[in-house]
Amino acid sequence: MKIVFTFLLSFFVLIGDAQNNDSLIIVSKGKAQYSIHTESSAAVEVAGILQKYVAAVSGVQLPISPEKAGKKKQIRFVDFSGLHNLPFNDSLRADGFIISTVGKDICVYAKNTAGFQNAVFYFLEHRLGCRFYAADAQVIPKNKELKISPINTVQNPAFEFRVDYNGDAFNKDFSQWHGLHNKPRNTDAGGFEVSENWGMWVHTLHKLVPPEKWFDAHPEYYALRNGVRVKDQLCLSNPEVLKIAIASLREEIAKNPKALFWSVSQLDNFNYCMCNKCQAVDEANGSPSGTVITFVNAIAKEFPDKIISTLAYQYSRKAPSSVKPLPNVNIMLCTIECDRNKPISQDSLEGSFTKDLKDWGALTGNILIWDYVINFSNIIGPSPNFHVLKPNLQLFRKNHVAMVFEQGWPHQNGEFTDLRCYVLAKLLWDPSLNTDSLMQDFCTGYYGPGGKFVYQYIQLSTQNLLKSGRALTLYEPMSAHAQGFLSPENLDIYIKLFDSALMASEGNTAYCHRIRMARQPVLYAWLEVAKSLPFTDNWLFEKDEKGMHSAREKARQYLRELCDTATVYGPMLFHEISIKPQEYYERMSTYFENGVQMHKAVGKSISFATPASPKYAANGPNSLIDGVCGTDNYFSLWQGWYGEDVDATIDMGSEETISNIQLNCLINQASWIFAPANITVRASNNGKDFTEIKTFINADALKKMDKSIVPFLIEFPVQQNCRYLNIKLKNIGNLPEWHGSEGKTWIFVDEIMVK
After folding, report:
1. 464-493 pLDDT, tens per residue?
2. Distances 279 to 50, 223, 295 between C-alpha atoms, Å
3. How far apart are CA 529 and CA 485, in angstroms?
4. pTM of the prediction?
5. Half-sphere exposure of 438 toward its Cβ, with a 13 Å CA cutoff?
């Protein structure tokens, strides 16, 4: 131990400088020149891993010896935690490590098995040239002569807890190689699967106080909104709720007593309680986080040996001004509102996240950042956010964040799932690494000769996004960038780059398959953008010699390629929670047939008593009589009115015989979009004197419904000969009590078809 001490003392002074500049010959002429010696029980299994990989590279198996004796040079695994009373002992984190050349020996120091594992995988990458890009892409170079330069390095991870919620990060071997804390995937489990050390993970209040058990008898246990008790959140100031939550949590802990972290956290909505008691606490703290932290503190007192985690999310993101989290309360601070086109430190999309981070940091050092690297609305859509990964992680590190959860797509084959998984794994350990270098290394190793074209696509799409100046958010359609990085011209260039990539890697089945998977998002974006550009050269449809519209053959080809590939290889969903590849294929095929509906009002004129919201004006007023139907994406082809009636008058230009009108309305109640209360149709020949033809009463307007497109057919009692038609859709006004939110409703209309 004295020898070790002497080395370490000098090592920390001269860190990074090799003590001996002579090369270290590990294997030569088919014989092992080194043995592996384990002085720590924590390294026994790890020694086997090193032995396996050295054999895979060189064809020679290094012997593992429990003894120090002998003349053979050694790779020594030494338990660093056993070195007591050293002034620098704390410089090594729990899963950090030291590798250093001592004479001709290679000494590996760590405090536990994870540290030794991390050291071995670092050695394999930085000295033997091994790579673990993905579960199906591990590179093990062949070299019968293993000669390495001396090594002296201290490696501590930037963050103590690192979860990369992307694809292969849930593969046990990948996770171990990259030092992640992901729990191996259990395909039968629902919800988030993160780490063995977590007993419950987010949005847990309804598990602790289930409404199906308590709401009917005790509605006062739940949030008061607009004078009505709703099931969406708890009343956190109610002492009975606290008692029930404590008892429920105690039962859960008894099932899994080894788990350290237990989430007591709000549901995924904005309907926090506004009763007098809750409001008083929140007003005193300047944020609804006041009641959250007060409630969670009370629970944390009951479980001092556990860490009680809670969300600082959406309405609770702002730190409280008075109440302070207890030491065993963990704050999950979420970046969901931030713009991914720029580093968070430069973002002001939804207030200053950086300020909230600093304010929480002034209250506690127990913070987990829940960061997002995904477009939830379009899992498969292009989202070039690689340029912000490094600066965002550096911001978190600068503000003493110890825990990071990077939310991407946890399954296979989302948009660059493999690449994003790899890059984030590296940056979570060391955010000073060069992101471009990581991506180039990955693209070369994962895509082969075609990788340079894939990398060019990433660089070009990022440049085009930055040039547009448009925000990149977590819930947005592809059409939001139709004038920017996803313009038709840019998409055509991207597709040509992937064509070049496929040609370059032709003959290698694995490389070509991976390139086709990386190409999927561009095909998807092409289809989605083309839908949003009616009557342009880049529209989804083209007109034949008979004046009929049909989908372009290129569109049909891209749809088949996209969905055939996704059906077999993924992604399993195109949206966060819905739209399987086959469903998308069927929807688009139906849209190819019905997306253009010619009728008597096409090409005529329309006016409105109140114009549509500028945010949702589609392609101008005539969008409602252009023959183009919308999809369930309300950002394009739809016109929206907030809290206003839709009052439209169509001028047919001359007297026409009309039997009915049909119009489509969108229902998306989570986004405050409701069907109209009623629809009234009136006719006139002079544009002044109108006669009511029919009023349809919508009895289902206030009912809870899944989002959908609802057609309304208004059949006239008798045919009308008229020039003018007035159509009025009555807005239901305020959101219904059961909704929980305060505000008015939207009406969205995509086409008024006159037949």
Report:
1. 999 999 999 999 999 999 999 999 999 999
2. 59, 11, 14
3. 11
4. 0.89
5. 23
Main-chain phi, psi angles of 87, to 5 degrees = -65, -15
How far is 11 from 3, CA to CA, in rounded Å?
A: 12
448 conformational bin, left if phi > 0, alpha if psi -120 to 50, beta if neither: left
| Whether the Cβ atoms of residue 544 and residue 551 lie closer than 8 Å to each other | no
Range list of β-strands (E), 112-244? 131-134, 137-139, 146-148, 152-155, 161-165, 198-200, 222-225, 228-234
- Report domain extents, the chain: 2-156, 162-199+245-433, 459-594, 605-754
CA atoms within 13 A on the CB side of 387: 18
Element (H, E) at 529: helix 509-531
CATH assignment of 162-199+245-433?
A: 3.20.20
Q: Which of 724, 642, 645, 726 is nearest to 682 (CA)?
A: 726
**Residue in this structure with the two tokens 């290889």, named with its chain if needed:** 569
Is CATH 3.40.50.150 the classification given to domain 605-754?
Answer: no
Fold for the domain defined by 2-156? Chitobiase; domain 2 (3.30.379)
pLDDT digits over 235-282, tens only?
Answer: 999 999 999 999 999 999 999 999 999 999 999 999 999 999 999 999
Residue 643 to residue 655: CA distance in whole angstroms? 33
What is the four-CA torsion angle of 418, 421, 167, 310, rounded to 10 degrees?
-160
SS3 222: strand
Give strand pairing partners of 139: 131
Burial label for 674, CB within 10 Å (0-12, 13-18, 19+), is buried
pLDDT tens digits, 70-112: 667 999 999 887 655 544 455 788 899 999 998 889 999 999 9
Let me know: does 112 contact 94? Beta carbons within 8 Å.
yes
Residue 494 burial (C-beta neighbours within 10 Å; 0-12, 13-18, 19+)? buried
Strand partners, 372: 407
